[in-house]
TrEMBL record:
This is Glucose-6-phosphate 1-dehydrogenase. NADP(+) binds at R49, D92, F93, K145. One of its GO terms (cellular component) is cytosol. It comes from the Bacteria. The active site is at H237. Residues 187-484 form the Glucose-6-phosphate dehydrogenase C-terminal domain. It comes from Azomonas agilis. Residues 13-184 form the Glucose-6-phosphate dehydrogenase NAD-binding domain. Catalyzes the oxidation of glucose 6-phosphate to 6-phosphogluconolactone. Pathway: Carbohydrate degradation; pentose phosphate pathway; D-ribulose 5-phosphate from D-glucose 6-phosphate (oxidative stage): step 1/3.
Length: 488
C-alpha cells in the first residue's frame, strides 16, 4: 500500500539548531518532501534561541542539508521548495511570552506537531506554554529520548507532559523503532509460522543482541558523561529490540496491542540484584584506532573530566521470567568506539534431541538465525547440509540461507528511521512510539541494574578503542560455553 500523504501540518521544531535537528531531522524532512510525502500546505517552524536573524538561521539549515545529502539526492528545485516551507523564529522555550510569536505563526487549522529536540528538562516547559497559549488540543507532542535519567525523573517528565497532553497525543521517540529492519522483526516473527513455532525455551538455547558503534561521543561530553551507554543505548534501543524479539504475538497491529506485549516482557525481565551484578560488565574506551585512525580515550576527549567513571560500553546476561523464555539467557552488549559498526540479533537454536553424526562434528550442529539490522541489512538462517562429493561421507557443513536486503530490493532506497517516524507522527499513528509505561518499566529495571553495580563499587573496565570491548565481556559469555557471534 503506498504511503498516504498526510494532511497539512505545522511542524514546530524546538531545538532547530541542535545536533539532532541539523544532522537528522531536517534531512529526513527534505527526503519526505523529495518523495512527495509532504502535503503542499505543510510548514516547518524552526525554533531556536541562538540565531537572531531568520535568514542566517535558514542559511544554516540549508548548509546542513547540503552537507548531509548525497549528491544525487540534492535537487535544487526541491531544496528551494523545502526552504519555502521553513519559517525561523528565535525564542527561549522556557519563556512564556515568547510563545505569543510562535502562536501568531500558526496559521492553519491542521495538527501542530511540537517536536522537542531539546534536553528533556525543557519538555515540561514546552508543554505548559503550548497549553497556556491554547494550543494543546491540536498538538501532537514528540519527545526525544532518553526520557529522564532514572525512573523518578522520567515519571516527573511524563507527569509534566500528562498535565497538558493525554497519552494519545504523546509520541516518544526511540529511533530504532523507525528502522526498516527493526520493523521487519514483526514481519519475520509473525508472518512466518516457521519461526513462531520454534520461538521459545524448548527450541532456542540463547539470544545475543549487539549494538556496536565505531563513533565516540562526537563532542557530546556534557550529555554523554551524565548518561553513559546504559542510559544512552541500553535503556531504550536495546530493550526495545529485546521486547520485539521476546514478546508474545499481539492480537493485531494497533499501537496498544503491540505496546501491551512489550510491557509484559519488560515486567518479566529478571532483576539484576547485587548478587547478579557480576553479570554486568561496564567498560570505558582508552586511546586506540578506529577505522584506521588514531583516536583519543574517553578521558582525553574534549571537555573531559579525567575522573569520570561513566561507561561507554555495557554487556550483560539476563533472563525473561515467563513460560516462553524460562532458562534462556539473553546476552546484550553495546559500546562506543568498538571494532565495527554492527547492530545484530542472533538467535541460537538448540541441538537436535538425538545425535546420529560423527562425534567430532557435534559442535557444528546448531542452527542460528542472524538478523543484521545495520549495516548490510540481512537475514541469514544457518542450516546444516551434507558436504557434496563422492569423497565425502556424511560430513556436515553449516551454510546460510541468506536474504540481503540491498540485493533483494535493489531499486528501493532504505529510508532513515527519522523519515519513517516523522511520517508516522504526521499520520497520527503511534505504533512506532514508546508508551509511558514502557519507558517506566525499562527505567525500573535499569535503575536496579545501576544500583547493583554501584553497590559493588564497580568501576568500568578499560578497553582499547577499536576493539570488541573489555575482556570481561568475552568471559561473560564464554563462561557459559558460548561466544559472541561474529567477533574476530
Ligand atoms: N544528537 C543525537 O544524535 C541524538 C539526540 N537525541 C536527543 O535529542 C535531543 C536533542 O539532542 P541534541 O540535538 O544532540 O542536543 P543539542 O544540545 O545539540 O541541541 C538541543 C538544542 O536545544 C536548544 N535549547 C535547549 N534549551 C533551550 C531553551 N530553553 N530555549 C531555546 N533553545 C533551547 C539548544 O540551544 P543552545 O544551543 O542555545 O543551548 C540546542 O540548540 C536530546 O533530548 C537528546 O537526548 C536522541 C538521539 C540521538
Ligand atoms: O540514540 C542514539 O543513537 C545513536 C546510534 O544510532 P544509530 O542509528 O547510528 O545506530 C548513538 O550514537 C547516540 O549516542 C544515541 O544517543
Amino acid at each position: 500500500m503506498p504511503a498516504i500523504i498526510p494532511e497539512a501540518v505545522t511542524l514546530a521544531l524546538f531545538g532547530a539548531q541542535g545536533d539532532l535537528a541539523l544532522r537528522k531531522l531536517f534531512p529526513a524532512l527534505y527526503q519526505l518532501d523529495r518523495a512527495s510525502l509532504l502535503h503542499e500546505g505543510t510548514r516547518v517552524l524552526a525554533l531556536s534561541r541562538r540565531v537572531g536573524d531568520p535568514q542566517a538561521h535558514k542559511a544554516r539549515i540549508e548548509q546542513a542539508l547540503r552537507q548531509r545529502l548525497l549528491r544525487h539526492e540534492l535537487d535544487e528545485r526541491i531544496l528551494e521548495r523545502f526552504c519555502n516551507r521553513l519559517d525561523c523564529l528565535t525564542m527561549d522555550f522556557q519563556c512564556a511570552t515568547d510563545y505569543e510569536a510562535l502562536k501568531s505563526k500558526i496559521t492553519t487549522q491542521g495538527p501542530l506537531i511540537a517536536y522537542c529536540a531539546t534536553p528533556a528538562k525543557v519538555f515540561g516547559a514546552i508543554c505548559e506554554h503550548l497549553a497556556a497559549h491554547g494550543l494543546a488540543e491540536q498538538t501532537r507532542i514528540v519527545l526525544e529520548k532518553p526520557i529522564g535519567h532514572d525512573l523518578r525523573s522520567s515519571q516527573l517528565i511524563n507527569e509534566a507532559v500528562a498535565r497538558h497532553f493525554p497519552e494519545s497525543q504523546v509520541y516518544r521517540i526511540d529511533h530504532y523503532l523507525g528502522k526498516e529492519t527493526v520493523q521487519n522483526l514483526i514481519a519475520l516473527r509473525f508472518a512466518n509460522s516457521l519461526f513462531e513455532t520454534q520461538w521459545d525455551q524448548h527450541h532456542i538455547s540463547h539470544v545475543e543482541i549487539t549494538v556496536a558503534e565505531t563513533v565516540g561521543i562526537e563532542g557530546r561530553w556534557g550529555y554523554f558523561d551524565q548518561a553513559g551507554q546504559m542510559r544512552d543505548m541500553l535503556q531504550n534501543h536495546l530493550l526495545q529490540l529485546l521486547c520485539l524479539i521476546a514478546m508474545d504475538p499481539p492480537s493485531d497491529l494497533t499501537a496498544d496491542s503491540i505496546r501491551d506485549e512489550k510491557v509484559k516482557v519488560l515486567k518479566a525481565l529478571a532483576p539484576i540484584t547485587p548478587e547478579h551484578a557480576k553479570q554486568v560488565i561496564r567498560g570505558q574506551y582508552t586511546a586506540g584506532f578506529s577505522q584506521g585512525k588514531a583516536v583519543p580515550g574517553y578521558l582525553e576527549e574534549e571537555q573531559a573530566n579525567s575522573n569520570s567513571t561513566t561507561e561507554t560500553f555495557i554487556a550483560l546476561r539476563t533472563e525473561i521470567r515467563n513460560w516462553r523464555w524460562s532458562g534462556v539467557p539473553f546476552y546484550l552488549r553495546t559500546g562506543k568506539r568498538m571494532a565495527q559498526k554492527l547492530s545484530q540479533i542472533v538467535i541460537h537454536f538448540k541441538e537436535p534431541p538425538f545425535y546420529i553424526f560423527a562425534p567430532e562434528q557435534r559442535s557444528l550442529i546448531n542452527n542460528r538465525l542472524i538478523i543484521r539490522l545495520q549495516p548490510d541489512e540481512c537475514i541469514a538462517l544457518h542450516v546444516m547440509t551434507k558436504e557434496q562429493g563422492l569423497d565425502k561421507g556424511m560430513q556436515l557443513r553449516r551454510g546460510p540461507l541468506q536474504l540481503n536486503f540491498s540485493e533483494a530490493y535493489q531499486s528501493v532506497r532504505i529510508p532513515d528511521a527519522y523519515e519513517r517516524l516523522l511520517l508516522e507522527v504526521m499520520q497520527g499513528n503511534q505504533n512506532l512510539f514508546v508508551r509511558k509505561d514502557e519507558v517506566e518499566y525499562a527505567w525500573r529495571w535499569c535503575d536496579q541494574l545501576m544500583a547493583s553495580c554501584t553497590c559493588l563499587g564497580d568501576r568500568p573496565k578499560a578497553y582499547s578503542a577499536g576493539s570488541w570491548g573489555p575482556m570481561a565481556s568475552i568471559a561473560l559469555i564464554t563462561q557459559d560455553g558460548r561466544s559472541w557471534y561474529g567477533d574476530f
